[in-house]
């Protein structure tokens, strides 16, 4: 999952949210350098990623992008899932997504002092361009795909990914629908067990 899902699956707990959002910048045992609740967020993020990658719907969804993007297909699925979460009327309205996004940015501001340096550099762009809310729009997804390509060592083309997203929109939405309720239960249960 991408930033919106990780934020949402932090269950309104600020320290968990911080760890969950900057986890990708924490390698291996560096996790032990963080305060306990932030550490739980980092570990929750890793558990969410493992569950997502191993789920049958995700494995199927990756096949849409795999012929063109191989190992990076997961990143495009993560962004796609955030789009469907942002538009999931069971989870958000337009107003509640906007409010949720602003609350996340305010909460993360308070944890920047313990955030890894790469996240500190990325966060102002996330906030300024309102990434969390903009997953809702197709233009936001197109820009997110551009971001995936920009950060990837061996990719140069995001337009093919966006074309595949558009052509397979209904199929990807169904994969999300088949997958997300089980992820939500898993994330909640995992956090309760920590």
At a glance:
The protein is mostly helical and 194 residues long. It has eleven helices and no strands. It has one domain.
Structure report:
Pfam families: ACP_PD. GO terms for molecular function: [acyl-carrier-protein] phosphodiesterase activity. This is ACP phosphodiesterase. The model has no long low-confidence stretch (mean pLDDT 96). The chain has one domain (3-192). The chain is an all-alpha fold and 194 residues long. The chain has helices at 3-8, 14-22, 36-54, 56-69, 73-86, 94-109, 117-128, 131-134, 138-151, 159-167, 169-192. The protein has eleven helices and no strands. It starts with a helix and ends with a helix.
Descriptive terms for the model:
globular; 194 residues; 0% strand
Number of domains: 1
Low-confidence stretches: none
Sheet/helix structural class = mainly alpha
What value does the Rg take, in angstroms? 16 Å
- Biggest sheet character: none
Keywords: Hydrolase, Lipid biosynthesis, Lipid metabolism
GO biological process, one term: fatty acid biosynthetic process
InterPro entries: ACP_PD
GO molecular function: [acyl-carrier-protein] phosphodiesterase activity
